[in-house]
Design brief:
Number of helices of chain A: 15
CATH topology of the largest domain in chain A: D-Maltodextrin-Binding Protein, domain 2
Oligomer: heterodimer
CATH architecture of the largest domain in chain A: 3-Layer(aba) Sandwich
Largest sheet of chain B: none
Order of helices and strands of chain B: HHHHHHHHHHH
Strand order of the largest sheet of chain A: 2-1-3-10-4-11
Number of strands of chain A: 11
Number of helices of chain B: 11
Distance between the termini of chain B: 22 Å
Number of domains of chain B: 2
Number of domains of chain A: 3
CATH class of the largest domain in chain B: Mainly Alpha
CATH class of the largest domain in chain A: Alpha Beta
Shape of chain B: flat
CATH architecture of the largest domain in chain B: Orthogonal Bundle
Helix content of chain B: over 70%
Strand content of chain B: under 5%
Distance between the termini of chain A: 55 Å
CATH superfamily of the largest domain in chain A: Periplasmic binding protein-like II
Number of strands of chain B: 0
Strand content of chain A: 15-25%
Largest interface: A-B, 25 and 20 residues
Largest sheet of chain A: 6 strands, mixed
Structural class of chain A: alpha/beta
Shape of chain A: globular
Order of helices and strands of chain A: HHEHHEHEHEEEHEHEHEHEHHHHEH
Chain lengths: ~350, ~260
């Protein structure tokens, strides 16, 4: 490699920058010019070849699944562990991308890398609102979302003062939307607490809450709810109270292009997902024993998390329209997305 | 061709290139069917910039960022001066400063961020600590090198004029170290600016509404690609302003004026 580079460098040095000696060395100059043209041509050819080989690779059927961490994604871990997709879709290469939030999954889907994405219901609506050509494919799971506080005197958001900080996962996440709804109900202004929000991962927020920093409220999900409650903290409200009904928390989303042009893959994928969810609901104990090593906890602990109050695995979307209306009223969405544009079929 | 003529021509060519690049951008957006979610047009970006500066908090966030950096740099400057002075006083503090520099200088601020959160929380204090860490060590290293470089002839001259040690430090050594000091300030600025934006983008907003980093993060989350470009544009403009105007001015007032530019 280095030798080649040196050769190329020498080669370039041979080519004069200015046409000083055109008359004396006209012939030599011609050869040098021809040689440099040839080099350029070769470079272009290599580039094009690489590009073509890349696109050729894409033609081979490939399914990339973008999902996140936690027991809410257990059906996907089961599909992955058992190779269910490889079995149901022979000849298709399956790839799994476990990412830290909805944004990188959305970006991966926009540039065509990720085929099927899994995330909270709110980021999907925010994407639609901004022209992202995707729709809900189905639900994955529902679980409790709770507003937890460490101070006993705080029973409602009205009891917070301006120095209290509230930890959420990220701006625009489902927890943020629920908090805004609660703020609208209790304080009369959905964005009243915006200046007090801090974006943190769940484990960081648990630590902050336990160590008595300025963070005094955390909007969170299992298993962090149990952890915080076991340290004497209390629930101010939970998702079902705020929305008035249970709702799908994690859902699956696909691009319109996949649905229209790759229907067979789409159908097979979601059939397999439904199978995995059925299996979890029928044999929860066996599945938790099987997946315990994936999550790095004991089978009992996983079983407890998978059956915790409010945890449901189902493909049936619930409460999507209510969530859209809530987000519209809190200013998270600009357009009232028509109901028929939300879900495929 | 004379020097100023070359400079003028160079400036003209640079502006032409800027225009060509902008034109190529706009043409790409208009002529290809690329989604505006991937690459928005220049008009969209400018209108996002105006929208967020007038209705949103972009202006406050920009000022907050600049204020934090200015405060952090000032704090590092005083600290660096103090540590450099200490290291000139005696061999024992000199060794301490060397040890500290060796340990801390190659340590990226972002690597320290989890520890900083643990010690200082997630508030403004944490990010301030990060900025000071990023700015202090390059500044101190440059300063110490500059101070050491001062020829003994000058310091001896000061001593024979019965100047105190402090006076020799501030009047002779520090002036002699001015080119290094400015180079150090430039590195410190670049490092702390990067660390601040990086910290906000990795660990979330700081203070009530955060700075430019949290603006970029929010625009990304809410899928506002035009806003994302607007934030990057602000970062570019601030970079040009600080490097091209502010540091240039400082150099003109000091090293250029004192005839120290090599």
């Amino acid at each position: 490699m280095i030798h080649d580079a040196l050769k190329t460098e020498k080669f370039f040095r041979m080519i004069p920058r200015k046409r000083k000696h055109k008359t004396e060395y006209g012939r030599v100059h011609f050869f040098r010019k021809a040689a440099s043209r040839l080099l350029l041509l070769m470079l272009t050819a290599t580039l094009t070849a690489t590009l073509f080989s890349c696109t050729a690779k894409k033609e081979q059927q490939r399914v990339v699944i973008g999902y996140q961490f936690g027991t809410a994604y257990a059906p996907l871990e089961l599909m992955k562990a058992r190779g269910m997709l490889e079995e149901n879709m022979p000849g298709v290469t399956v790839e799994w991308r476990q990412l830290g939030g909805p944004t990188p999954i959305r970006e991966g889907m926009l540039n065509g890398e990720i085929t099927f994405g899994f995330m909270g219901v709110c980021p999907v609506l925010i994407g639609m609102d901004n022209g992202m050509p995707w729709k809900y494919a189905c639900a994955l799971s529902a679980n409790e979302v709770a507003v937890i506080t460490r101070s006993d005197s705080v029973q409602s958001l009205k009891d917070l003062n301006e120095n209290d900080r509230i930890a959420i996962l990220s701006p625009g996440c489902t927890q943020h939307v629920l908090l805004s709804l609660l703020a609208k109900e209790q304080l009369g202004d959905a964005s009243a607490l915006d200046a007090q929000l801090v974006s943190m991962t769940h484990p960081d927020a648990v630590n902050a809450l336990l160590s008595g920093t300025e963070i005094s409220v955390h909007v969170t999900t299992p298993p962090y709810i149990q952890k915080e409650l076991s340290h004497g903290m209390h629930r101010m409200a939970d998702g079902t109270d705020i929305m008035g009904e249970p709702f799908t928390f994690i859902c699956s989303v696909a691009m319109e292009e996949t649905y229209e042009n790759n229907r067979e893959t789409y159908d097979l994928f979601y059939e397999t997902l439904a199978e995995a969810i059925d299996e979890i609901n029928r044999n929860t104990e066996a599945v938790s024993a099987e997946l315990a090593p994936v999550y790095g906890i004991s089978p009992e602990a996983l079983y407890e998390q998978m059956t915790y109050n409010g945890t449901i695995y189902s493909t049936e979307l619930q409460g999507i329209e209510a969530m859209r209306d809530a987000m519209l009223s809190c200013g998270f969405l600009r357009n009232a997305i028509p109901t028929e544009d939300l879900v495929f079929e | 061709m004379n020097d100023s003529g070359h400079k003028k021509k160079n400036r003209l060519y640079r502006w032409i290139w800027v225009l060509v690049l902008l034109l190529a951008w706009e043409l790409t957006v208009r002529l290809s069917d690329i989604s505006p979610l991937m690459l928005p047009g220049i008009g969209d970006i400018l209108s996002a910039l105006v929208r967020d500066a007038t209705e949103g908090r972009l202006l406050t966030q920009t000022l907050f960022s600049l204020g934090m950096i200015a405060g952090g740099m000032l704090c590092s400057f005083v600290l660096a001066l103090f540590l450099a002075y200490l290291s000139r006083l005696h061999e024992i503090p000199e060794a301490l400063v060397q040890v500290l520099c060796t340990i801390a200088h190659p340590l990226p601020g972002l690597a320290l961020m989890p520890l900083i959160i643990l010690w200082f929380g997630t508030g403004t204090g944490a990010v301030f600590a990060l900025i000071v860490h990023s700015a202090l060590w390059p500044l101190l290293l440059n300063l110490v090198t500059g101070l050491e470089r001062t020829p003994e002839l000058y310091t001896d001259l000061g001593k024979s004029l019965s100047m105190s040690q402090t006076a020799v430090f501030f009047e002779i050594r520090l002036r002699y170290a001015a080119p290094e000091l400015i180079a150090g300030l430039k590195t410190a600025w670049a490092r702390s600016w990067r660390a601040f934006i990086g910290a906000e983008m990795v660990f979330g907003a700081v203070g009530a509404y955060g700075g430019i980093g949290s603006y970029l993060l929010t625009r990304r989350t809410f899928m506002d690609t035009a806003g994302l470009f607007a934030g990057i544009l602000i970062v570019v403009l601030i970079g040009i302003f600080v490097e091209g105007l502010l540091f240039r001015l400082i150099e003109k007032q000091t090293v250029d004026k004192w005839g120290m530019r090599t």
